[in-house]
Amino acid sequence: MTAPEDPQPPADVPTLTELTARLAEFAAARRWQPFHTPKNLAAALSVEAGELLEIFQWLTPEQAAAVMDDPKDAHRVRDEVADVLAYLLQFCAAVGVDPLAALDAKIDRNELRFPAAPDE
Protein backbone atom coordinates (compact mmCIF):
# COMPACT_ATOMS: atom_id res chain seq x y z
CA MET A 1 0.00 0.00 0.00
CA THR A 2 1.46 3.31 -0.98
CA ALA A 3 1.04 6.51 0.98
CA PRO A 4 -1.56 8.90 -0.39
CA GLU A 5 -0.29 11.93 -2.20
CA ASP A 6 0.04 15.07 -0.09
CA PRO A 7 -2.67 17.19 -1.68
CA GLN A 8 -2.21 20.91 -1.54
CA PRO A 9 -5.16 22.55 0.21
CA PRO A 10 -6.83 25.46 -1.55
CA ALA A 11 -5.14 28.78 -0.82
CA ASP A 12 -8.05 29.95 1.33
CA VAL A 13 -7.87 27.01 3.80
CA PRO A 14 -6.27 28.13 7.08
CA THR A 15 -3.48 26.20 8.78
CA LEU A 16 -3.95 24.26 12.02
CA THR A 17 -2.17 27.08 13.83
CA GLU A 18 -4.52 29.66 12.36
CA LEU A 19 -7.57 27.57 13.19
CA THR A 20 -6.37 27.02 16.75
CA ALA A 21 -5.95 30.78 17.16
CA ARG A 22 -9.39 31.40 15.66
CA LEU A 23 -10.95 28.91 18.10
CA ALA A 24 -9.18 30.61 21.02
CA GLU A 25 -10.45 34.00 19.88
CA PHE A 26 -13.97 32.62 19.49
CA ALA A 27 -13.95 31.21 23.04
CA ALA A 28 -12.37 34.35 24.49
CA ALA A 29 -14.99 36.60 22.89
CA ARG A 30 -17.65 34.56 24.69
CA ARG A 31 -15.67 34.30 27.94
CA TRP A 32 -15.67 30.49 27.73
CA GLN A 33 -12.01 30.00 28.78
CA PRO A 34 -12.87 29.07 32.42
CA PHE A 35 -14.86 26.13 31.06
CA HIS A 36 -12.19 24.99 28.59
CA THR A 37 -10.31 22.80 31.03
CA PRO A 38 -8.55 19.66 29.80
CA LYS A 39 -11.24 17.49 31.43
CA ASN A 40 -14.12 19.43 29.88
CA LEU A 41 -12.50 19.55 26.46
CA ALA A 42 -11.74 15.81 26.55
CA ALA A 43 -15.36 15.14 27.50
CA ALA A 44 -16.64 17.39 24.71
CA LEU A 45 -14.32 15.65 22.24
CA SER A 46 -15.73 12.29 23.29
CA VAL A 47 -19.31 13.52 22.89
CA GLU A 48 -18.62 14.88 19.41
CA ALA A 49 -16.87 11.65 18.37
CA GLY A 50 -19.97 9.82 19.57
CA GLU A 51 -22.15 12.08 17.44
CA LEU A 52 -19.99 11.21 14.42
CA LEU A 53 -20.37 7.51 15.22
CA GLU A 54 -24.13 7.93 15.58
CA ILE A 55 -24.40 8.75 11.87
CA PHE A 56 -22.97 5.31 11.02
CA GLN A 57 -24.37 3.32 13.95
CA TRP A 58 -26.91 1.11 12.19
CA LEU A 59 -25.62 1.30 8.62
CA THR A 60 -24.40 -1.71 6.70
CA PRO A 61 -20.81 -1.51 5.42
CA GLU A 62 -22.18 -0.66 1.98
CA GLN A 63 -24.41 2.11 3.32
CA ALA A 64 -21.54 3.52 5.39
CA ALA A 65 -19.29 3.58 2.32
CA ALA A 66 -21.93 5.58 0.45
CA VAL A 67 -22.85 8.02 3.23
CA MET A 68 -21.10 10.96 1.55
CA ASP A 69 -23.25 10.47 -1.57
CA ASP A 70 -26.28 11.92 0.21
CA PRO A 71 -25.91 15.71 0.61
CA LYS A 72 -27.76 15.80 3.95
CA ASP A 73 -25.68 12.98 5.45
CA ALA A 74 -22.47 14.40 3.99
CA HIS A 75 -23.24 17.74 5.63
CA ARG A 76 -23.79 16.02 9.00
CA VAL A 77 -20.50 14.10 8.64
CA ARG A 78 -18.56 17.28 7.79
CA ASP A 79 -20.12 19.12 10.75
CA GLU A 80 -19.26 16.35 13.20
CA VAL A 81 -15.70 16.05 11.82
CA ALA A 82 -15.36 19.81 12.32
CA ASP A 83 -16.64 19.54 15.90
CA VAL A 84 -14.23 16.68 16.69
CA LEU A 85 -11.29 18.58 15.21
CA ALA A 86 -12.26 21.81 16.98
CA TYR A 87 -12.34 20.16 20.39
CA LEU A 88 -9.15 18.21 19.67
CA LEU A 89 -7.31 21.41 18.73
CA GLN A 90 -8.65 23.22 21.80
CA PHE A 91 -7.66 20.27 24.01
CA CYS A 92 -4.14 20.21 22.54
CA ALA A 93 -3.78 23.95 23.16
CA ALA A 94 -4.96 23.52 26.75
CA VAL A 95 -2.43 20.78 27.55
CA GLY A 96 0.43 22.01 25.35
CA VAL A 97 0.48 19.16 22.83
CA ASP A 98 1.45 19.78 19.21
CA PRO A 99 -1.01 17.44 17.45
CA LEU A 100 1.09 17.04 14.31
CA ALA A 101 4.25 16.25 16.30
CA ALA A 102 2.30 13.82 18.48
CA LEU A 103 0.91 12.03 15.43
CA ASP A 104 4.33 11.89 13.77
CA ALA A 105 5.88 10.36 16.89
CA LYS A 106 3.01 7.87 17.24
CA ILE A 107 3.40 6.71 13.63
CA ASP A 108 7.12 6.20 14.29
CA ARG A 109 6.32 4.03 17.33
CA ASN A 110 3.64 2.09 15.44
CA GLU A 111 6.06 1.36 12.59
CA LEU A 112 8.33 -0.29 15.14
CA ARG A 113 5.49 -2.12 16.92
CA PHE A 114 3.80 -3.32 13.73
CA PRO A 115 6.40 -3.95 11.02
CA ALA A 116 5.12 -4.15 7.46
CA ALA A 117 4.73 -7.62 6.01
CA PRO A 118 7.61 -8.52 3.71
CA ASP A 119 6.92 -8.43 -0.01
CA GLU A 120 6.48 -11.87 -1.47
Draw up the topology in text.
Blueprint: H1 16-29, H2 38-56, H3 61-65, H4 71-95, H5 99-113
Helix pairs in contact: 1-4, 2-4
Structure characterization notes:
The protein has 120 residues and is mainly alpha-helical. It has one domain: Helix Hairpins, CATH 1.10.287.1080. It is 65% helix and 0% strand. It is built from five helices and no strands. Helix 1 crosses helix 4 and helix 2 (38-56) packs antiparallel against helix 4. The longest helix is centred in the last third of the chain and has 25 residues, at 71-95. The mean pLDDT is 94.
What is the compact description of this entry?
With 120 residues, this protein is mainly α.
State the share of residues found in helices, binned by percent. Answer: 55-70%
- Measured between the Cα atoms of the first and last residue, the distance is 14 Å
Beta-strand content bin: under 5%
CATH architecture tag: Orthogonal Bundle
| Structural domain tally | 1
Give descriptors for this structure.
120 residues, 5 helices, Helix Hairpins, mainly alpha
